[in-house]
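Supplementary Text 2. Reproducibility record for the structural model of the 715-residue chain.

All settings were left at their defaults, and a single model was retained for analysis rather than an ensemble. We include the record here because the model underlies the residue-level annotations in Supplementary Table 4.
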Amino acid sequence: MPIPKKTLEDLEFNLVVEAISKYCVTSLGKELLNDLDPQYEFKNIDFSLNLVSEYLSSLYNDNNFPNHGFESISKDLKIIEIENSQLDIESFRKIKVVVELTISHIKFLKKSKEYYKNIFLLIEFLEVEKNIITEINSVIDKFGLIKDNASIDLLEIRKGINTTKSKIRQSFSTALNSYNASGYLDEIKESTIDNRRVLAVKAMYRRKVKGQMMGSSKTGIIVYIEPQETLVQSRKLQDFLYDEDQEIKRILKELTSFLRPYISLLKNYQSYLAKIDVIYSKAKYANEINGIKPNLSRDKVIFLKNAFHPLLYSNNKSLGIKTYPQTIELNKGNRIIVISGPNAGGKSITLKTIGLLQLMIQSGILVPVHQQSYMSVFQNIVSDIGDNQSIENQLSTYSYRLKNMNNFLRKCNSETLFLIDEFGTGSDPELGGALAEIFLEVFYERKSFGVITTHYSNLKLLADELPNMSNANMQFNDKTLEPTFNLIVGQAGSSFTFEVAQKNGIPYSIINRAKKKIERGKVRFDATIAKLQKQRLELDKTTSSLKDEEIKFRKENEKLDITNNKIKSKLINYQELFDSNQRMIVAGNKLNEIAQRYFDNNKKRNLVSEVLKLVDTLNSKRKKTNFSNTKLDKNKNTQEVLNNELLVIRKEKKTNKSKALNKKKVLVELKLGDKVRLEDSTSVGTIDKIEKNNATVNYGTFITKVDLNRLEYVK
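Retained model, structure tokens:
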């Protein structure tokens, strides 16, 4: 179902299209843009946005796209379709440009496929047909003229033309010199008529000069005559020129026939370049408004963070005025937002920003939002914004709005986004407000998504009562009563009716009398809302300050965690290194004892036996770790294998611990000053301190804290 024309007009989508079309360099690109309509297929929208994002990235790097400017060849292609038709030289020039540009893009995208994956899909199946360029170049030169060697006959004809022109020049010069010597010519001697050289003969001698009279001067004193021999050669030249014209027509007709089988390919070439022009224009506009592709979600959600109205942003940018961004969220848990507050606070702009950005996204146009923003796709986008009096249909504002609401009721469902400005106005406040409340309830029941602006208290109360609907207000400075253009979700806005009136010079006595005219409850309600808004402003400042402190604390905590992990890692490495060195020292001492005994008794048999026992003892320990027997797979990463082995070792150690744990507890109860060592370790330390199940062990060179269950008592 297409987006209603009224919605496009309300949200000024046409102005965005106009702004984009200014960047188009081709007429076909502008035509495509003018026909641009929002899409509904998620996949197509995502693809369109990716195309523009990729081209936008090329504007910021050195890998720029080739030129794509061309003149339309649509009419020329229609002529080619007609049998025995003939294109002119200009048409061939345009076709050649289209082919050359497309081929340059194909080459570029094949080289840069990894950077422009989506744009590459546009040319993936386009054939490169260089024969078209070759054939056109064989007939037409770079100056747009038919080449002499375009055909054998044309070459002979042009040779004849050149020879004849030479004879014309020669014969005319001879006649000129002869008749000038005879005194028959006027002082100007010669002239040109119809691009033919003629003699300026004195009228009295006209019968003395042989040739054809081509005209005379206004006074009749001079007669212009083409000499006889020159006349003969001129007629021969005309014959050659006629033959040349006929041969050129034949050549162009033949070249036209050559292109006929390529009509479909040429259409695809032109279509690609037109699409690229649209993508280029969208990218240039995105660059102007700082547009990006937000996160596109299949779930129904709109989360616009720091979103700008693109038209307002561009206009303010040119005037040097600051534009205030908005942050707003719609999701399944909060489908409808009711924005209230005083006029001129930015309610309507917020409403239009949401709607226009949604139309832009579904039309493949990047939007000015923060990168963390989320948007989805809606099948229906309907709006009711501004004064809708219809003079043609003789409808009042309220009648027109009721008719519009009736259309809403027919279309609204879970796939609908509705945007209504000043909901319920145009009739009696109480009656109109009651009807507006019922409409809003129906939209809510049908699970539609939407944003409305209103001054009606009953609609604010309804938003507070329903779980998936919320109030929002445009924040005002309570002292200056100037808008801050900041949307606050979760709280209704005060109209600041009496405050604004007082600021604008209305006497307090008049304002006080007005307050007495209305219900006290309503005044208190409005005053309470105004007070809440002030408190909310102060709360926001406090929250912002606390968030900054929280971020600082989190960063410091992360730094401490990193430092702590590094220290732990170093301690473990030092402990393992120390244990390894201790084992080597013990083994070295035993080997030294064996060597001493051999030195004393010189018995080789005992030496070999004791060395073998020592080796067996060392190997038996190695079997526990299983490092020496591990065969690393050449195709696996060595580090990964070692990590797996460490996991196996740790599991074995845990199993051994659990088996020995009960025995330890029964045999020895550790206390301060006891000599202890870690399981499978030879290093001995002293217990300095015991806290719960942990003990602080002093090894002399360093101190460490370990679980009591991991310690063994050393006598």
